[in-house]
Design a protein that fits this description.
Elements: H1 6-9, H2 20-27, E1 33-34, H3 46-55, H4 68-78, E2 85-88, H5 91-102, E3 108-112, H6 118-125, E4 129-133, H7 142-147, E5 153-159, H8 171-180, E6 186-190, H9 205-208, E7 215-220, E8 233-236, H10 239-248, H11 256-267, H12 269-292, E9 296-297, E10 304-308, H13 314-323, E11 326-327, E12 329-330, E13 339-343, H14 347-361
Parallel strand pairs: 1-11, 3-4, 3-5, 5-6, 6-7
Antiparallel strand pairs: 2-8, 7-8, 9-10, 10-13, 12-13
Length: 363
């Protein structure tokens, strides 16, 4: 057996949501409602699909390694400069690049226990310790995080809104935390779900960067833009941070179709509005339906809800739902043995889920 570093041998691979084709093949079901991976139920922007299709005619050529057009489009939309933007093969690549670039041997990352597992996995994959502060009622406890800052802390990962909990912290909470963070510690604020937020006190992270230059903001095209299969994300950070990431990232790390689709998706305001409206309608509908079945449902600012079904082991309920043609995400790995994370689907998909749960929970 080839020797590997102990920290690699100890890694548990990330487990994605079960694909529709696999469920159909294994369980002999059809018309599967996949509510497991927080994808956009409306699908991708039609403009993005057309742009990607056109770009495919040129895939014999390497993509623009600097993603000039995409960074320019993002800069115009966000009110930043292209030099403040790094793009990646999904925001996951950028999170991993941050660890690889800025956390040296003997240094640490810091995040919240029960938040997005990739922060810990990215740290462990590079042999770096990830310190985790406890949450409070499935929300980030930024005071507890501040108490765990040390001379070894190099990067702090925050998810707002959080995955898998759907909860958020306010601008006042974030500002107080940033005041406590040394200026030589990079704070990465993961805003993968920011476009679904309607909370009035949610932070304006891009504006806060002017006061706190060590703040970097990570976002993705996988959620509201519906481009998960193309793998495209971006990071807004100081030009210095972006320049160092550029030294480390692989050349041509985003594909030609992905770049073209990203530019087009940013321009498709109609698709963005329809996607927001769907979530605004289905989030209260699904939450109320789950509560009526006896589940505990956490308030969400995302395109998914976290539900707990007391007395119903998560693995068994997940398996039973698969047999009904519904895919959700069991939360045992996040310390919720009876929990499920459920993506907001179309109304028919949400009704199918509620019908299946009603049948299973009353059996």
């Amino acid at each position: 057996m080839l020797p590997v570093p102990p920290y690699v041998a100890a890694l548990q691979p990330y487990v994605p949501g079960k694909p529709i084709e696999e469920v159909e093949r294994e369980y002999g079901v059809s018309n599967v409602a996949k509510l497991a991976s927080n994808e956009n139920a409306l699908g991708p922007s039609p403009r993005a699909v057309a742009a990607a299709r056109e770009a495919c005619a040129k895939v014999h050529l390497y993509p623009d390694g600097s993603a000039f057009a995409l960074r320019g489009a993002l800069a115009r939309k966000l009110g930043v400069t292209p030099e403040e933007l790094a793009v990646g093969n999904g925001s996951n690549e950028l999170l991993e690049l941050v660890v690889r670039t800025f956390v040296a041997e003997g240094e640490e990352t810091l995040t919240a226990e029960g938040s997005f597992v990739v922060y810990r996995l990215a740290s462990q994959a590079h042999g770096r310790r990830c310190v985790e502060a406890p949450m409070r009622e499935r929300r980030y406890d930024l005071r507890a995080l501040a108490e765990r800052l040390s001379r070894r802390t190099r990067v702090v990962f925050l998810a707002n809104p959080d995955n898998p909990n759907g909860t958020y912290f306010s601008e006042a909470e974030l500002r107080a935390f940033l005041e406590a963070v040394p200026r030589d510690v990079l704070v990465v604020l993961d805003e993968a779900y920011v476009e679904f937020v309607d909370a009035k006190d949610f932070p304006d992270a891009l504006a806060l960067r002017r006061r706190f230059p060590q703040l970097a903001v990570s976002r993705t095209f996988s959620k509201i833009y519906g481009l998960a299969g193309l793998r495209l994300g971006y990071l807004v950070a100081s030009p210095e941070v972006v320049a160092f990431l550029d030294r480390v990232r692989a050349p041509f790390n985003t594909s030609l179709p992905a770049q073209a689709a990203g530019v087009a998706a940013l321009e498709d305001e109609e698709h963005l509005a329809r996607s927001r409206a769907l979530v605004a309608s289905e989030r209260p509908f699904l939450s109320a339906g789950l509560r009526a079945l006896g589940a505990t449902v956490w308030p969400s600012q995302t395109n998914f809800v976290l539900a707990d079904f007391p007395g119903r082991p998560g693995g068994a309920l997940f398996e039973a739902l698969l047999r009904e043609g519904v895919v959700v995400r069991p939360m045992g790995g996040y310390g919720m043995p009876t929990g499920q994370r459920i993506t907001l689907g179309l109304r028919a998909e949400n009704e199918k889920l509620l019908g299946a749960l009603k049948k299973l929970l009353r059996a």
